[in-house]
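dumping this here so i dont lose it
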């Protein structure tokens, strides 16, 4: 039977490591429960399939994430206790986000409960719709940034329908996803001209 205090110690160590790093000006929404990493995590847990999250981290972090995933799934298979299951999920998510953000050159500063930036939320809607219209309607597409945004978006759409078992194709998509959403993140205002008032 899994020893809960051991898992709590692991979580504490991860939290301490994150606290020693200085935060960036901008916080990507991949560190929230509203972001795509959490959705990928849920798919991985539900299907017990590491492929759903492997492509969100760089190759040199994959083995560490796989070990954490295997530990989490082992814990979950041995208990029905809701508190323990939630703790195990949190442990996996925190490590997952930490390794993903390290791949972006960003420090891990914990899981955020802050609302997603309007621009990033609209970027996600545009990806789901495979259309820039949500960003157009929100005023985030301007004459100054249109050419660049359309080029980045076109590359993203070329990569969006990848096989989840093709990790490298997934990483190519994530690269485009991060580049696209960062264009509309408030901390990356230098990358794209927002409409007046944003």
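and the seq i came up w/
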């Amino acid at each position: 039977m899994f020893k809960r205090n051991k898992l709590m110690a692991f979580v504490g160590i991860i939290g301490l490591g994150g606290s020693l790093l200085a935060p960036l000006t901008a916080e990507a929404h991949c560190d929230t429960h509203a972001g795509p990493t959490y959705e990928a995590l849920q798919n991985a847990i539900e299907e017990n399939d590491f492929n759903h999250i492997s492509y969100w981290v760089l190759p040199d972090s994959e083995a560490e994430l796989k070990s954490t995933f295997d530990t989490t799934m082992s814990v979950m298979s041995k208990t029905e206790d809701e508190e323990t299951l939630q703790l195990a999920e949190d442990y996996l998510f925190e490590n997952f986000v930490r390794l993903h953000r390290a791949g972006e050159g960003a420090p891990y500063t914990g899981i955020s409960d802050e609302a997603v930036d309007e621009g990033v939320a609209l970027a996600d809607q545009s990806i789901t719709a495979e259309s820039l219209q949500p960003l157009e309607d929100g005023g985030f597409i301007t004459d100054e940034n249109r050419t660049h945004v359309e080029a980045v978006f076109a590359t993203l759409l070329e990569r969006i329908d990848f096989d989840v078992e093709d990790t490298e194709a997934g990483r190519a998509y994530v690269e485009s996803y991060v580049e696209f959403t960062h264009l509309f993140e408030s901390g990356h205002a230098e990358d794209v001209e927002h409409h007046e008032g944003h």
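The longest helix spans residues 82-103.
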